[in-house]
Design brief:
The chain is α+β, with helices and mostly antiparallel strands. It has two domains: 119 residues, Sandwich (Jelly Rolls); 32 residues, no CATH class. The chain contains four helices and eight strands, in the order H-E-E-E-E-E-E-E-E-H-H-H. The strands form two sheets. Strands 1-8-3-6 form a four-stranded antiparallel beta sheet, with helices on one face. A four-stranded antiparallel beta sheet has the order 2-7-4-5, with no helix packed on it. A hairpin with a 5-residue loop joins strand 4 and strand 5. The chain is globular, with a radius of gyration of 20 Å.
Length: 173
């Protein structure tokens, strides 16, 4: 196989890796007056997006008011990066400012009688956080710095050796 064939094979492998989802949504239950936390080890300056929603126990009816949650996402040093109180859904987006375990905690008030609330949660970091336009709308990340990389992926990797900035982006992702 010649250099062009190796380069094409490498580009194809990279494209498959980037476009393959690295995570799936989680579904878990939170009991009344209880807390569930999920942690994710995140590197410095990584793009992070997440969304969560309470699963309606009765599809044909509106979500009961008792099915509201409080959500807090915090950094390894305890800094809050997202907080929402008494909600049935939400999302967040940020660029990590610390390296380590970020924590997403979900809790419910004490209900009598007790209820169990199912939550669906999708947390993506790095390349898997490909919700570019919604992240850009939040104003948290300069999407223009990632556009050359995305362009590289969809243009077959042509001219990468002539663009040191793009090569740097590619190796640092």
């Amino acid at each position: 196989m010649g250099i062009g064939g190796v380069r094409s094979a490498a580009n194809l492998c990279l494209l498959i890796f980037v476009l393959t989802p690295l995570s799936e949504a989680l579904r878990f239950d939170v009991q009344s007056a209880q807390t569930k936390c999920i942690s994710e080890d995140i590197k410095l300056n990584s793009m992070v997006v997440g969304k969560y929603s309470v699963v309606n126990p009765a599809d044909d009816q509106p979500l009961p008011d008792s099915h509201k949650i409080t959500v807090r996402v915090s950094s390894p040093y305890g800094n809050s990066v997202h907080y929402a109180d008494h909600v049935d859904s939400g999302n967040f987006a940020f660029t990590s400012s610390e390296t380590g375990d970020y924590l997403a905690c979900f809790w419910t008030p004490d209900h009598k009688p007790a209820v169990t609330i199912s939550v669906e949660f999708d947390w993506r970091t790095g390349v898997a956080a490909k919700d570019w336009t919604n992240v850009a709308k939040k104003g948290q990340i300069d999407v223009s710095s990632y556009l050359p990389f995305v362009s590289f992926l969809f243009n077959g990797g042509s001219h990468i050796e002539n663009n040191p900035r793009l090569l740097l982006k590619l190796t640092s992702v």
